[in-house]
Amino acid sequence: MSFRVNKQFVLIIFILSFLVWAEEPPKQRVELPEQYKKWLDEDVVYIIGPKEKDVFLQLKTDRERDLFISAFWKQRDPTPSTEVNEFRNEHYRRINHANRYFGRGSPKPGWKTDRGRIYIILGEPNDIQRFEGKTMTYPCEVWFYQGKTDLGLPAGFNLVFFQERSVGEYRLYSPSRDGPQALMTSYYGDPADYISAYNQLMEYEPDLAAVSLSLIPGEESTALGRPSLSSDLMVQKVESSPQKQINEKYAQKFLQFKDIVEVEYTANYIDNDSLVKVIQDPSGIYFVHYALEPQRLSVDSYENKYYTTLKLNGTVRDEAGKIIYQFDRTISVDLDEEKMRTVSRQPLNIHDLFPMIPGNYHLSLLLKNEASKEFTSLERNIVVPEEKGLQMSSLLLGYSVTKVEPGTKRLKPFQLGSYLVYSQPNRVFLKKDTLGLAFQVYGLTPELKQGGEVKFVFQREGQDYRTLSRKISEYSELPNIVEEFPLSEFPPAHYGIQVLVLTDGNAVLSESEEFDVTHLESIPRPWFRSKILPDSDDPIYAYLVGTQLFNSGRIEEARENLERAYRRKPDSADFALNLAQVYMALADYKKIEPILLPFLNQEKPSKYELYLVMGRAYKNLGESSKAIEIFDRAISHYGLNVNILNMIGECYFQMGNASAALTAWEKSLEMSPDQPEIRKHVEALKEKR
Fold first, then answer.
1. Looking at the whole model, is its pTM more than 0.90?
2. Residue of 391, 476, 507, 565 with fewest CB within 10 Å of its CB?
3. How many CB atoms are located within 10 Å of the residue 385 CB?
């Protein structure tokens, strides 16, 4: 059979092929020491992802590069809990094999050849068919692979290499770029007539002809009269498959945290699922609720006990990057053998909440596992709304909703009024689950409470699937709205849900969320480590809100809250200290002494900052001798400190004792030479001698 292909089609194929196969222009980059240049351009050139490469080129020191290389291999280690990295060992075995067998007859080392590249990426073929010593075809090899579906490749496929003109290295064959004619030593037909070439090759080597138009078994390319484009797309997938197997987020986290976390953690980033919601308490305080689900939990073991300690650090910054709130939490995990068997099949879900004043913020959480030296992080922009007009919170989806026992005042994560929503960040549900949906509507007018309605619209594949409407007046715990939807009638699929608040049939508010219903019979639900907070009437909240207001520069509002907290709990050193700092900012120094002196008169106060604030207050009141006495007591408890020495120097200078001031400042410079202002004071005093 003969079929002539349009030459314009061939030209298009050639142009597309050129765009696919042409190398990218070289990018300018930093000069690397030779050992790291070899690692990047030779050892891992075929498996490193673009983000990984970009991060590696931003590193400044050999120590950072060594740590990154450790992280690179650890991310690919199939058994990270063992000392052997099977992936790394296999990778270098493949490189050695390529250099030994594929560099023959080529000026290139084996790893640079087409066969070497494919071998390093895919490993040993399941079968190799060789066509050598033939008069009508160039030397060829057909490599057959199967069992690579995890890489997004066909269940079985071929790759063809041929030695053009029977010299040099074997080149990777492209059905669309080369065609059957490139495999034959003599072909005198039309270069654009692939089918004629195919028919001629069938006469010489039927097995080779079978893969010349398509590399994928069973694809009927001859019926179309042109080579298989899907084969070239498949080859592209082969080339990019190593990068797609790794989540390159770890590289960005390495760059972000390399100067923050300890060295032993740097190479051990693990991914996580996370969820953050802002929920208003009946008291009017907004709380940030979060769930953090690490990809895995590693523990130490001793005498049938399993344990680790997780260190959680949280930071909330405003839009200018200023820290408004910080917190730390230690989570101890201590399990017996029976409990370990149970939870080893379940993910750990860390639930927590904290109050936050209105504003736009960036939340950063850093979780470190002290047993495995692994870390993970959460970065999220959050909005804590001002109570201005009609507003709606984002939607919270859960796989279980329970009612809190009447009279319970403690606050729990993901609690809305009397409802507790058990949620998992990935939002995957079973058909037998009941979907819990919760949200809040703020600023409801009496008219909207009586005449408004809430409309729930479920969508599947972009089409409305289910719709339900309820009167707002039916909900007894406004602004909290909680609904439950059995999923038994929801076929496994990806869904969206939109919630609209309507008045007179018109939508005035809208929020949406997505979720999946799986075909699986069961899902490992998490075990929780939740923080339970005291009732919202507890003075701790006035203290935390006041501290956040102070850090935001809203001093008067901070004073009101911190005074209220201190009145409720005057025996708290933290409450007293923060209130004293507010009075310091307001230059109301006389109010500081009665607040702080009871703590300073204790045998050893718990906080060094108490001395510093009290001493500064005395200094600003002109009572320098009292300030020096306070600073001396601080030194007797905590030892010499640069800040205290500088303050002592200022006090002596204020009293006219230049010699004593010079002594204090010179001692401070001995401890910390990089103090330009203090050095100026010292030089000025020495000139006056």
1. no
2. 476
3. 18
Q: Residues of the chain with pLDDT > 90: what percent?
A: 76
User: Quick one: pLDDT at residue 605?
Assistant: 66
In one letter, which amino acid is 99?
N
Candidates 493, 489, 390; CA nearest to 449 is 390
Residue 235 burial (CB < 10 Å; 0-12/13-18/19+)? buried
Per-residue H/E/C for 532-587: CECCCCCHHHHHHHHHHHHHCCCHHHHHHHHHHHHHHCCCCHHHHHHHHHHHHHCC
Question: What are the phi and psi torsion angles at 580 (to 5°)?
Answer: -60, -35
Q: What own/partner pairs with CB < 8 Å and gap ≥ 24 does 519-526 have?
A: 519/492, 520/430, 521/430, 522/430, 523/428, 523/429, 523/430, 524/345, 524/346, 524/347, 525/346, 525/399, 525/424, 526/293, 526/346, 526/347, 526/348, 526/349, 526/424
Cα within 13 Å of Cα(219), Cβ side: 23
How do beta strands 272-280 and 286-294 pair? antiparallel
Kindly state the DSSP code that residue 346 receives in the 8-state scheme: S
Distance CA 451, CA 503 (A): 7
CA distance 559 to 410: 26
Report the distance separating Cα 173 and Cα 349, nearest Å. 50
With the CA atoms of 563, 568, 572 and 573 taken in that order, what torsion angle do they form, in degrees rounded to the nearest 10?
10
Q: Please name the helix (run of DSSP H) or strand (run of DSSP E) that holds residue 157, with its range, or none.
A: strand 156-162
Distances (CA, A) of 167 to 34, 175, 487: 33, 21, 65
Task: Phi first, then psi: give them for residue 34, nearest 5 degrees.
Answer: -55, -40
Q: Do the Cβ atoms of 420 and 401 come closer than 8 Å? A: yes
Q: Provide the 10 A C-beta neighbour count for residue 306.
A: 20
Domains and CATH numbers, the chain: 7-244 (no CATH), 270-530 (2.60.40.1930), 539-688 (1.25.40.10)
Give how far the C-alpha of residue 76 lies from the chain's centroid of Cα atoms, to the nearest Å: 17
Residue 616 pLDDT > 70 = yes
Q: Does residue 276 contact residue 365 with C-beta atoms inside 8 Å?
A: no
Structure letter (DSSP) for residue 623: -
CB 299 within 8 A of CB 307: yes
pLDDT at residue 27, as a whole number: 43
Most distant pair of Cα atoms in the chain: their distance: 111
Map 106-136 to HEC letters. CCCCHHHCHHHHHHHHHCCCCEEEEECCCCC
Query: Per residue in 428-452, is it b (16+ CB within 10 Å) or e — as a string?
Result: ebbbebebbbbbbbbebeeebeeeb
Q: What is the mean pLDDT of residues 305-316?
A: 95
Q: Looking at the predicted structure, is the pLDDT value of residue 232 above 60?
A: yes
pLDDT, residue 489, reads 94
Q: Which of 419, 425, 481 is nearest to 448 (CA)?
A: 481
240 pLDDT tier (thresholds 50, 70, 90): very high
Q: How far apart are CA 627 and CA 664, in angstroms?
A: 14
- Give Cβ neighbours of residue 508 (< 8 Å, ≥ 6 apart): 390, 448, 501, 502
Residue 292 sits at φ, ψ, to 5 deg, of -125, 120
